[in-house]
Amino acid sequence: MIDLAPPVSLGPDRPMRLRASAAVRRLVRETRLHPADLILPLFVKAGEGLRDEIASMPGVFQLSVDEAVREAERAAEVGVSGVLLFGLPEHKDAEGSAAHDDREAVQRATRAIKAALPDLAVITDVCLCEYTDHGHCGILGLDGGVELEASLPAHVAAAVSHARAGADLVAPSSMIDGVVGAIRAGLDGAGFGHVGIFSYAVKYASAFYGPFRDAADSAPAFGDRRTHQMDPGNVREALREAALDVAQGADLLMVKPAVAYLDVIRQIRDAFPERPLGAYHVSGEYAMLKAAAERGWLDERRAVLEALTGIRRAGADLIITYYATEAARWLAEGE
Ligand code: PBG
Questions:
Q1: Under 8 Å CB-to-CB from 22, ≥6 apart: which residues?
Q2: Cα 208 off chain centre by
Q3: What was the pLDDT predicted at 323?
Q4: How many angstroms separate the CA atoms of 321 and 334, rounded?
Q5: Who has greater pLDDT, 246 or 136?
């Protein structure tokens, strides 16, 4: 006679039951990724009909405004909830003055995208690094360091110019002390009290920004950003940075980069439960996945969705990613 009793070591609690079929796995999934969680960064510049591919970011382009509208339409069609705009100005100078020029590409793209797609959130990056000839994020003082007295008003002027163009949210990314409070006061004073601040509250001095600096032509001509971006070893300091930005009026918080900083995302999520939290899956994270996928070393779709799900599971509500449109399409196709 065959003994049908299970081996004694197998108790009644059998987790594999809930993994036995795609139907049940889908039912019990704890973290769901949705196209509306995703924000697509776009690089915009002057001209028409331009789609110049960025060498270190295959599938990502420097776009003229008309093409940026098209790219935003493609993202909106598959349910992506916002775009984050970066500008490539025609002229750079020591003060980054093109950053607050209403005729620049970011401002024109903001107007054009809001006119074509009023339900898509337009978020603008507020920083000087793409606009200064030295590539630093602020205006430099005599010692060669970023000088707050001059840099803060320059950030405010850029934010107000973006708000005037119709940006829903401005996203200061330079990690300069006091920038959130200065922008909040500047926006309120200019009649843009309704425009929110998505603060890059916790931004590390990361090697993973390398491809972005090719994309935005914003590598510093000398030195680096370690005097204002955070040291990768620190997490208590992240809580301090976020608390300061909340006190200064940040409406949403961001941690950047994402995958190497999942513990930071979790800690910020727990410490600031009332704030929406974004995580920036940055250019280097995109480039690594693309490069491996192109060589056939990774299943791109599965690896990307796994990375994005991990970022959500760590506690981010929103993910800024160059994969936004593609990932939203994959999600619509289902498992
Ligand atoms: C600064 C800025 C950077 C990124 C976003 N905003 C570059 C930097 O701090 O050097 C990086 C984004 C990415 O790597 O995808 N304006």
A1: 335
A2: 13
A3: 98
A4: 20
A5: 246
Half-sphere exposure of 65 (CA within 13 A, CB side): 17
- pLDDT tens for 197-210 read 999 999 999 999 99
Residue that has been written with the tokens 């000398």 in this structure = 222
> Looking up tokens 């790219």, which residue turns up?
71
Instruction: For residue 16, report the distance from its CA to the centre of ligand 1, in Å.
Output: 42
Q: What is the pLDDT of residues 189-236, one digit of tens each?
A: 999 999 999 999 999 999 999 999 888 888 888 888 888 899 999 999
Distance CA 120, CA 71 (A): 12
Ligand 1 interacting residues, C-beta cut-off 6 A: 125, 127, 129, 173, 209, 212-213, 225, 282-283
Confidence of residue 284 (pLDDT cuts 50, 70, 90): very high
User: What does the pLDDT average to over 273-277?
Assistant: 97
The domain ranges of the chain are: 31-333
Residue 203 is a catalytic residue: yes
Q: Which of 92, 114, 256, 290 is catalytic?
A: 256
- Token digits of residue 17: 């039951």
**How many Cβ atoms from other residues are within 10 Å of residue 199's Cβ?**
32
- Answer whether CATH 3.10.170.10 is correct for domain 31-333: no
The residue contributing the CA closest to ligand 1 atom 2 is 173
Q: How far apart are CA 58 and CA 287, in angstroms?
A: 8
Q: Is 17 exposed, middle or buried (0-12, 13-18, 19+ CB in 10 A)?
A: exposed
